[in-house]
Amino acid sequence: MGAMRADNTWKPFLATDDIERTLKAAAEHGATVHAPAMAVDDLGSQAVIGDPSGAVMGIWQPASFPGFTVINEPGAVLFVSINVHDYRAQITFYRQVFGWEPDEEEVDGHHYAGFMDPETGRPLAGIGDEVEKLEPGEAPAWTISWQCDDIEAAVARVHSLGGTAISGPDHGGLGRSARVADATGARFSLCQPSGN
Predict the structure, then answer these.
(1) Hey, which of 16, 54, 82, 108 would disulfide with 22, CB 3.0 to 4.6 Å?
(2) At what angle do helices 87-98 and 19-28 cross, to 10 degrees?
C-alpha cells in the first residue's frame, strides 16, 4: 500500500456502517487499498480504494456527517456510472463488497446494471460495458452526473467559468447529458432528466 497522492478527479464515496470490514472485503475481492481508514474529525471515517477495474472510489463511515443527502434535483448529484472491460467481475465485486443487487439488461449487445434507490426506485448508480465511450487511452473511472434543469445553460456556465465541453449534449437513458471538465481539467457530467 503506497502513499495516496491527491489527484484532480471526482470520486464517489459509498457509505458503510463498518469501514474496516468493508476494506477487508474489498481487498479480498480484488481491490487495491490506496488510503486506509482514517477519522475525519468527528464527521466520520474515510478510505480510498481502487476497484478491480482500477477505478478509484472512496468509502465513508458516517459519524456526525452522513454524507450528501440531497439527490435528484438541480444542483445535486443525479447518478454515478462507469463503463468497464470486465463487466461481470465489476458486478460481482459491488455485489460481494457493498451488497448491491443490480437490475441488469442487455441492449444492442451491451450489458448494463442499474442500482436503484430502494425507497424511490430511481437509479443511483450504473455499471456498463460500453468501453467504446472511453477516449483513447482513458482508463475506467466513475463519472459523477450533476442534475440541471437546462443543459445548454449549464454547459454555457461551464464555459464561462473556464471549463470545457468534452461531448454532448446528447440524448441518453436518463435524459440529455454532456460530459464536461472544469477549469482545472476535472471531468464530470451534467444531465437534464427527461421531462425537465
Answers:
(1) 16
(2) 150
Per-residue pLDDT of 24-68, as tens digits, reads: 999 999 999 999 999 999 999 999 999 999 999 999 999 999 988
Provide the pLDDT for residue 70.
84
In the block, cell 436503484 appears at 116
CB 105 within 8 A of CB 112: yes
Residue ranges of alpha helices (H) inside the chain are: 19-28, 87-98, 151-160
Cβ neighbours around 88 below 10 Å, total: 11
Rg (CA), the chain: 17
Q: Look at strands 123-128 and 77-83 and give their pairing.
A: parallel
Distance CA 90, CA 106 (A): 16
Work out the average pLDDT over 84-105.
Answer: 92
Report which of 99, 98, 97, 103 is spatially closest to residue 128, judged by C-alpha positions.
Answer: 103
Q: Three cell numbers at 6? A: 491527491
pTM given for the model = 0.86
